[in-house]
Amino acid sequence: LLKRIGFTIAKAAPSTMGTLIAAAFIGAGKELEGLENLTADQITLFFRTMAEAVSLRGKAKEGEKTLLDVLFPVARALEACDNSDICIRLAIALDVAAKSLEQTRNMINQHGKAAVFREKSLGLLDPGAAAICFLIEGFTKACEKGSDIFVSTD
């Protein structure tokens, strides 16, 4: 399913952002292939794999005002969490994502169309990082509502 989501995004949104989000889902899909639902440890692996896939595809790294400035902090926070409740982990992910998004205000864009504005991007949120926050928010709400894609035990 995750790979299919990625391929669908790639086809529907052939922009740079579409390509990066597609790469994130395809990478996570390859790593988690064959699973019908996700545990707390697997959602942690999901975010780590997404971050690494985007970094590889976009040739970017954390600190360059991209979606990686949310994905990598979320992955690290979840890796440090020992709670096996996936909804709690997703709530942590959402909190870290919101704080990390806010930190992008203090950065200057290094990649994409926004990079031409360089210093003018200072004080603004990174749109890609904001998109990842919305994705995490959606996952968190789905978990809270009892979606069967998430399971609470490892």
Describe the structure.
With about 150 residues, the protein is an all-alpha fold. The protein contains 6 helices and no strands. The longest helix has 19 residues. The chain is globular, with a radius of gyration of 15 Å. It starts with a helix and ends in a 10-residue tail after the last helix. The mean pLDDT is about 90.
In short:
By secondary structure, the protein is mostly helical. 62% of the residues lie in helices and 0% in strands. The protein contains six helices and no strands.
From the structure above, extract its key features.
154 residues, mainly alpha, 6 helices
Helix-strand blueprint:
Layout: H1 2-12, H2 16-31, H3 40-58, H4 68-80, H5 86-103, H6 127-144
Helix pairs in contact: 1-2, 2-3, 3-4, 3-5, 4-5, 4-6, 5-6
